[in-house]
Specification:
Layout (H helix, E strand, L loop, with lengths): L8 E4 L5 H12 L3 E6 L2 H11 L3 E5 L5 H14 L3 E6 L14 H22 L3 E10 L12 H20 L6 E7 L5 H4 L4 H13 L9 H12 L10 E4 L7
Parallel strand pairs: 1-2, 1-4, 2-3, 4-5, 5-6, 6-7
Helix pairs in contact: 1-8, 3-4, 4-5
Length: 249
């Protein structure tokens, strides 16, 4: 049985933990050569070891255009092209409206919005016609979430990128789709609160999911592989909720 991504070359930003790591692992298992990025070398090395021989790690911060130039220069030198771009890197933390600072805003929008935009823009010269771009949005793109306004706004922007870019990339037959997870059991999610409150936070978030539990990174990874493969060849510009029903009620 042939693998869904046999012979493909993929980039996964933020590929050292959580959804990015799980997706890179699934891409590799389906036959792709995978490049991942991350800001910390030790985590990058550990992730490459988990993914296997088809993975290459490149240290870089998507919010830095110089770092992105270096990432794509290395991909060009080692692979020559890309078939799949999963602009996944990003994150955020909580702050009520009255306590939002410029630093808080800039940190989140620089990684989630600026980073996503310039990752895709700088990937285009390497991305083959007919390729697939996948963006990580969130259920917060369509739902109000208390104390999460800046993050939520950034993910709404990412979701709109998919709608706009598919029109601009139509001549190249490049598809652009967004994945919007609900809370997924990752280190980043738990890290929203101090360690003594993490178990309580995860339990509370699980009660908000109609299916009754948090998602797993591997479940979101399957959606990413779907978008990366020809299985989704006639799907373009959608927001796929991998959310246990969270955004559907």
């Amino acid at each position: 049985m042939s693998k869904k991504l046999e012979g493909k070359v993929a980039l996964v930003t933020g590929g050292t933990t959580g959804i990015g790591l799980a997706s890179a692992q699934d891409f590799a298992a389906q036959g792709a050569k995978v490049f991942i990025t991350g800001r910390r070398q030790a985590e990058l090395d550990a992730a490459v070891a988990l993914i296997g021989a088809s993975a290459t790690g490149i240290r870089g911060d998507v919010a830095s255009l110089d770092d992105l130039d270096r990432v794509f220069a290395e991909i060009k030198a080692k692979a020559g092209h890309l078939d799949i771009v999963f602009a996944n890197a990003g994150g955020g933390d909580m702050a009520p409206l009255t306590e939002v600072t410029e630093k808080h805003f800039d940190r989140i929008f620089n990684s989630n919005v600026k980073g996503t935009l310039f990752t895709v823009q700088k990937a285009l010269p390497l991305l083959k016609d007919g390729g697939s771009i996948i963006l990580t949005s969130s259920t917060t793109s369509v739902k109000g979430t208390e104390n999460f306004s800046v993050y939520s706004a950034s993910k709404a922007a990412v979701r709109n990128f998919a709608r706009t870019w598919l029109l601009e990339l139509k001549p190249r037959n490049i598809r652009v789709n967004a994945i919007s997870p609900s809370p997924v059991h990752t280190l980043g999610l738990a890290g929203l609160v101090p360690s003594e409150h993490q178990e309580g936070l995860l339990s509370q978030l699980a009660t908000m999911v109609p299916i009754g539990r948090l998602g797993q990174p591997s479940e979101v990874a399957k959606a990413a592989t779907f978008f990366a493969s020809d299985d989704s060849s006639f799907i373009n510009g959608i927001e796929l909720f991998v959310d246990g029903g969270t955004a559907q009620i």
